[in-house]
# Entry
Amino acid sequence: MNACLMLHGIGPLPPHVGADETPYWVSRETFDTIVELMQKIPARLTFDDGNATDETIALPQLMKAGLKASFFIPSARIGTEGYVSEDAIRELHRDGMEIGSHGCEHLDWTQVSDAEITHDVMQSVEQLSTIIQAPVRSVAIPYGYCDRRVLGVLRTLGMVRVYSSFRGPDSETAWLVRRDCIKKGMSREDILRIISRKPAAAETAINLLKVWRRAGNAALWTS
Ligand SMILES: [Zn+2]
# Structure
């Protein structure tokens, strides 16, 4: 039952990113803290959105610390200003990082048809697997917006791991992975609490209820 952390960008908010993303850009100090804590407490680390800081800041520090992470990249952004290039994605992959889909266009999949979800996912999977010359079989849900229908489509598409924004620690083998978003201004204590917490029984029950309402039955959570 390790925590799975979700990060976006590191450092000051770059000009190409909208101000609404401010809470999702953590300082370098916050990232240093995450790296330091992860060397002591096992946890999983993921990055959404394919920001250039995945390669320029996160990768060198992860390598130095001997840590691995998963990077979920909206493929329509590859090579555009402020986002990872094809070379950067290859480097991440070569260094042992997982490359996963975040769709092409960063769409809210609850608002589009099954066919549009399929197209958005499969096109990005094809593009990313061509870049790294290896299969891409995991996906992080843009905005974390999902319901039973979306998860059903992702299941049909053969995704082996789906990263959600439902909070809380998870088993290593869950098909639908819970994640805790690390936000700007979180203290070392906040992060330590997330990384080391074991869910209380009441919290587990509440989480299950939320998941049931929002994302369907327990079968969706297991492989
Ligand atoms: Zn995203």
Notes: Residues 114-132 form the longest helix (19 residues). Residues 48-49, 102, 106, 142 surround zinc ion (CB under 6 Å).
